Amino acid sequence: MLSYQHSYHAGGPADVHKHLVLAELLTLLTQKPRGISYLETHAGRGLYDLASDDSLKTGEAYEGIKALTLPDCPLAKTLANIRKQYGENAYPGSPMIARNILREQDMLHLMELHPVEYRHLRQNLMGDGVSLHKRDGYEGVFAITPPKPRKGLVLIDPSYEIKTEYAQVAEFTHRMMAKWPEATVMIWYPLLEAARHLELIEGLKLPFIKHEVGFDLKDGQGMTGSGLILVNAPYRSDEILQRVESQSAAILRPLG
Questions:
Q1: Is 157 part of the annotated catalytic residue set?
Q2: Is residue 1 part of a domain?
Q3: Which in 41, 110, 139, 226 has the greatest CB count within 10 A?
Q4: Is 83 within 8 Å of 5 (Cβ atoms)?
Q5: Does residue 2 have a pLDDT over 60?
């Protein structure tokens, strides 16, 4: 499906959860001089305007990043850097966060099939060390793995508009890890009343760490929380999740 556009939800509570963890993980993975590869199955446009009509229509940013005073942390540093360049209403998507944290020896591979989102992605992220692909994210990531450098992180972050995508994510993760066992995989999923995310969790037959948070959107509809799964999580990932809970306590509540 190509109807989903993330600009309506940029900077919302689920984004904050995902991006706090992502920024911390990338900071951890880049502590050693060896290069890493960063891959995304569903990159989006990479950069959002929280004063846009799309963002203001839902107001989710006011329940997410605009309701939070971040302490000194990787996401706060990234936000400051991005806003120096693009203005106070700029909000980075995961590709822009990755590009801001990664170094010259690192490589980004970004998949985006939506034609409008891909056009924006090219405008926002084209440059050295960034490989952009207008193709199906699962097919594209699988085709280029294992990449060089071989150490790396894959973000799987679909819209889940298609109900079968939860099971598809689990199946894809198994296939990709068999081909690239060195990878760390970060999977995002929404918490909804239908609880279809359980298909994903039950379908994963690999060791993983799960982190879920709850929140209350003012419209009372849609997501009730956000979930993340880390497969082949790097050492000290548990400390990252504890820090994220502290950083986001004003808007997110840990579940379980």
A1: yes
A2: no
A3: 110
A4: no
A5: no
pLDDT of residue 1: 46
State the catalytic residue, choosing from 106, 128, 136, 157.
Answer: 157
For residue 212, tell me if it sits in a domain.
Answer: yes
Q: Tell me if 191 is assigned to some domain.
A: yes
Is the separation of the CB atoms in 208 and 229 below 8 Å?
yes
Output the CA–CA distances (angstroms, integers) from residue 215 to 12, 35, 174, 224, 248, in the order listed: 10, 36, 30, 6, 11
CATH number of the domain encompassing residue 121: 3.40.50.150
* Residue 226 C-alpha from the chain's centroid: 11
Number of structural domains in the chain: 1
What DSSP designation does 155 have? E
- The rounded distance, in Å, linking the Cα atoms of 152 and 222 is 32
**Domain coverage including residue 179:** 6-254
CA 130, CA 40: separation in Å to the nearest integer? 12
At 225-237, the pLDDT tens digits run: 999 999 999 999 9
Render pLDDT for 123-139 as a digit per residue (tens, 0 to 9). Answer: 999 999 999 999 999 99
- pTM over 0.85? The answer is yes
Within 13 Å and on the Cβ side, how many CA atoms surround 83?
11
Paired sense of beta strands 184-191 and 152-156, if any = parallel
Query: Within the chain, where are the H helices?
Result: 13-29, 53-58, 74-86, 94-101, 115-125, 137-144, 165-179, 197-203, 237-247
pLDDT band at 10 (very low <50, low <70, confident <90, very high): confident
